[in-house]
Structures are given as C-alpha cells and as structure tokens.
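Sequence in, structure out. Go.
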Amino acid sequence: MAQLFPWAASGRAIANGRDEGVTQLLFDDSPEVHTNGGHGKILGGGMVGTHAGDMIGDIALAIEMGADAVDIGKTIHPHPTLGESIGMAAEVAHGSCTDLPPGKK
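Output:
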C-alpha cells in the first residue's frame, strides 16, 4: 500500500515557493498483517522535490528498525519542515492525517 503526501500541503514547501514535491511511503499490505489488527511495516519510500535527498535517511532508518505507520506518525517531525512530510505520509497510511487538501471534484 503506497501512501502519498503532496508538498502542496506542506507549510515549509509553500513558504519556500516550491510546493511541487511529494513524499511517498510504501507499507506491507499483506492480509496476515491486517488480520492481527496491525499496520504493515514500511517497505520503502521516495521523495521528489527540492532538498528531498536531505531527508531520505529518515526513511532508511524507519525501514531498518521495522517501523510501521503508527511508529513513524508518532515520531516527532518539527513544524514547519520538509521532513514533516514523512510523518504526514505515515498518517495518511494510518488514516489519521488532518493536513491533506480537499480532493478535486
């Protein structure tokens, strides 16, 4: 299950005048994970946008520690920073993100 957080909803990206980026996290969505009431562990992630390379280490650490969406979402991501988009993408996966813009009609 891949979850996206658009940088158009990031306060830092907007302030930088570069909100065209996106953060994507990929979580295990196998049936075994969900039958136990859990959330899948992170399998990978990617970012596109200005200074995205500065943040990829956070995703690598989450993969190494076997984090799931709740673990990542509960990790402190200072506001406003571009790194905050990692936590927001995890919250999208978990279903608790309140920072997404309304969907297009």
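Check: The chain has a mean pLDDT of 89. The radius of gyration is 13 Å.
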